[in-house]
Amino acid sequence: MKKILAGTALLLCLTPMAQAAGKLNLYVWSESISPALIEKFSKENDVAVHVDGYTSNEDLLTKLQAGASGYDISTPSQHFLKIMIDQGLLDNYGANTLKAYDNIDPRWRNQWWDETQGYSIPIAYGTAGFVVNTDLYKGPTDSLKYFFEPEGELAGKIAMLAQPDEVIGAAQLYLGVPFCTEDSAEMKKVLDLLMAQKPSVAVYSSDSIASRLGSGEVSAHFWWDGEELKARAGGAPFQMAMTKEGLVGWIDSMVIPKGAPNRENAIKFIEFMSEPENATEQMNYYAHSSPMKTVTEKVVYTKEKAPELYPDVPVEFSRTCSPAAQDLVTRVWTQLLQ
């Protein structure tokens, strides 16, 4: 997702360890899980919940590859989830046998990242694209052209993310270059586009996006739908561009790392988070779409209030690429930032 939030790893311990019969250690996207739900689960199950936060899929992968992480649940995005399954880093906990599986919106079941649905239950999904400060930029936003080939008031006032996944994905959408291509000539087109854009890019950063965009330091910033939505709901003059070429999609899922010390509590938590009432609370807190069944009348972010969560343009999900394709992405990004 995804999604890199400002700040360092988040630590929550809502129930003192010594006062609870059980334990549960989460390593999830920073600030992604509703504190109210953590507290509710802790009280209902007499489990002390400890939460650490990461800010990139790469950080999570490195942690799990090191082994003996001590964590019971993590929430990787789809393309990294596939890598973790292939590398034997995750527990096949029979997700498709749980009640939680029945609560998944059918369109998100048994997808390519977990075809047997043995390893994961989805928790949130969304998109990444360009967001504008409408006080500063009043021009068209219906094409990626205005951001990858900025002119006039956008020149020098664009900001991009610090990681390549979704930025390069968006460039590929604009150019019609397939995701995970192994064609170096096609990726040269991506590099040329990003290099031509570079003079207009004020910064490549995934931190402090709301303040950078709100202060007028930049007029447009690559960002995620839920973060933009929360800022806009708080009064910020932001708008996510619905570009005709499409948006880059992500979906995060609850997994159990191999060797998790509190596996049964992890399964209880996954079941708990997947109940419609709790999935609704999670969506209302996180401001990203829920892949689970929700209580419709309790959903805060309806299509009328949150159109960014219901895009009417194509959405292309980041994929798990071959080593050759990933090497091309890395080479493009390295050359761009030199």
Automatic annotation (TrEMBL):
Q: Where is this chain's protein located in or outside the cell?
A: Periplasm
A single GO BP term for this record reads: polyamine transport
| MF term (GO), any | polyamine binding
Naming one, the record's GO cellular component terms include:
periplasmic space
Q: What domain of life?
A: Bacteria
> Signal as a keyword?
yes
Protein transport: present as a keyword of the record?
A: no
Q: Which InterPro entries match?
A: SBP, Sperm_putr-bd
Q: Which UniProt keywords apply?
A: Periplasm, Signal, Transport
Q: Which Pfam families match?
A: SBP_bac_8
| Protein name according to UniProt | Spermidine/putrescine ABC transporter substrate-binding protein
What taxonomic classification does the UniProt entry list for its organism? Bacteria, Pseudomonadati, Pseudomonadota, Alphaproteobacteria, Rhodobacterales
